[in-house]
């Protein structure tokens, strides 16, 4: 059922926990965006979640559009996944030795994303992108990498340049603690602006190992690739003997069973995955053609390892989640329809003063009259208006990302009733 509306919501237990947490955890949180700095309030501390709903420690219920930043495509605590994980736990939490489950997950990934002929499991999206770049450099014998302003690929040193996500609202786009030497091989281009890429290749093409891109940018808010942009990246990398890396940590198994590459029919050389493939557990993966992945140790000279890589519990959650998605393709039609209804609701309510970008079950509202198609237009959004909107929605039990520059995620657990209630709350905003 849709959570009951409460009057005068209290957040006292969240406030108490936050004050105590700040004394022993940096900023009280284990990932910066969770601190709610961009929306100027105390974060909600979560007690539990089920389906499309999340419940805080003060007993408030919310309709959740963060979905743990993407993994919970089936909704929270999906019974079949939970039961499989519970059963797997009985057999031990980790072995540090190969298992049949890792083979099963690799085969499942390959069956859905054929370009990932060979893949390696890691424990986060950050590790996946960091490793994919190492492989691209090893394979091409070149050092430079092109990334796009506003795209986020995790927090590894070399990629923390003009990053999106938390780095945008935290005002630390370039982190302290990263030596200049570590980022000197990272070249930054503009998303959706082929010319900016062309220029880098014309001057440094022979030194460029790879382009890494979020095929749909989702860390400066959701920004769709313009027609032909991904095809252009495919062509220019081929022309110059560089690799194309699609960072599908968000889009993988989100835009469809084949990810963004299946959606747009553009095939990269390497792909990185995370979030959904762990079904809520810490998992990442990178992979591509055998010829490229043969660079990875122990076959090849590119080293990459992990104590908990291929962990049996995380792998179980991943297998179960991907199997359900594969068996039930109508999930994608349903979540896209839900997102479209929300997007239309937003456009209807705010009119021309906002830009709503939506693709599949990914979406963002930008408080700008401009069409948001790159970093510059994304950052033209009025973030104080976003903060006001966020606060209103939270106080009316709609849980959104506490930052303009994150995506809104819809899950298969969101019912028509949830979507209708969300639109109803929205219609009350600003009245
Ligand atoms: N790549 C993309 C596109 C992401 O959105 C993220 C995280 O949000 C990452 C990589 C890093 O993944 P993780 O947070 O699991 O390290």
TrEMBL record:
InterPro entries: 4pyrrol_synth_GluAld_NH2Trfase, Aminotrans_3, Aminotrans_3_PPA_site, PyrdxlP-dep_Trfase, PyrdxlP-dep_Trfase_major, PyrdxlP-dep_Trfase_small. Pathway: Porphyrin-containing compound metabolism; protoporphyrin-IX biosynthesis; 5-aminolevulinate from L-glutamyl-tRNA(Glu): step 2/2. Homodimer. Its cofactor is pyridoxal 5'-phosphate. The gene is hemL. This is Glutamate-1-semialdehyde 2,1-aminomutase. Its main location: cytoplasm. CDD domains: OAT_like. It catalyses: (S)-4-amino-5-oxopentanoate = 5-aminolevulinate. It is found in: Cytoplasm. One of its GO terms (biological process) is protoporphyrinogen IX biosynthetic process. It is an enzyme of class 5 (isomerase). Its EC number is 5.4.3.8. One of its GO terms (molecular function) is transaminase activity. GO terms for cellular component: cytoplasm. The modification N6-(pyridoxal phosphate)lysine is found at residue 275. It comes from Roseburia hominis (strain DSM 16839 / JCM 17582 / NCIMB 14029 / A2-183). Pfam families: Aminotran_3 (PF00202). Belongs to the class-III pyridoxal-phosphate-dependent aminotransferase family. HemL subfamily.
């Amino acid at each position: 059922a849709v959570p009951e509306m409460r009057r005068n919501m209290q957040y006292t237990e969240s406030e108490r926990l936050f004050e105590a947490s700040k004394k022993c955890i940096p900023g009280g949180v284990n990932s910066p965006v969770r601190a709610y700095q961009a929306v100027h309030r105390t974060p909600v501390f979560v007690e539990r979640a089920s389906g499309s709903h999340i419940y805080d420690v003060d007993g408030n219920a919310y309709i959740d559009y963060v979905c743990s930043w993407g993994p919970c495509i089936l909704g929270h605590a999906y019974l079949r996944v939970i039961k499989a994980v519970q059963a797997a736990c009985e057999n031990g939490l980790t072995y540090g030795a190969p298992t049949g489950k890792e083979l099963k997950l690799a085969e499942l990934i390959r069956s859905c994303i054929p370009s990932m002929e060979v893949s390696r499991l890691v424990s986060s999206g950050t590790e996946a992108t960091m490793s994919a770049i190492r492989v691209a450099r090893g394979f091409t014998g070149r050092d430079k990498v092109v990334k796009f302003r506003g795209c986020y690929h995790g927090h590894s040193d070399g990629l923390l340049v003009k990053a999106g996500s938390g780095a945008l609202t935290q005002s630390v786009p370039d982190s302290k603690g990263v030596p200049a030497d570590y980022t000197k091989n990272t070249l930054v281009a503009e998303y959706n602006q082929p010319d900016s890429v062309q220029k880098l290749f014309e001057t440094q093409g022979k030194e460029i190992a790879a382009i890494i891109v979020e095929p749909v940018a989702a860390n400066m808010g959701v920004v769709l690739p313009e027609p032909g942009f991904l095809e252009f990246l495919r062509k220019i990398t081929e022309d110059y003997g560089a690799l194309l890396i699609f960072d599908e940590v968000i889009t993988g198994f989100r835009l469809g069973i084949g990810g963004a590459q299946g959606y747009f029919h553009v095939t990269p050389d390497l792909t990185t995955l995370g979030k959904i493939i762990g079904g809520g557990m810490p998992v990442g993966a990178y992979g591509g053609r055998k010829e490229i992945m043969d660079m990875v140790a122990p076959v090849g000279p590119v080293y990459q390892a992990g104590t908990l890589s291929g962990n049996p519990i995380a792998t179980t959650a991943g297998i179960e989640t991907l199997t359900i998605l594969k068996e039930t393709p109508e999930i994608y039609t349903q979540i896209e329809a839900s997102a479209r209804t929300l997007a239309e609701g937003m456009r209807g309510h705010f009119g021309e003063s906002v830009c709503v970008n939506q693709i599949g079950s990914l979406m963002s509202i930008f408080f700008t009259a401009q069409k948001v198609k790159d970093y510059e237009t994304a950052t033209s959004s009025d973030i104080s208006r976003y903060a006001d909107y966020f606060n209103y929605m939270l106080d009316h039990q709609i849980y959104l990302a506490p930052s303009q520059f994150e995506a809104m995620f819809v899950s298969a657990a969101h019912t028509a009733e949830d979507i209708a209630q969300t639109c109803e709350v929205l219609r009350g905003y600003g009245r």
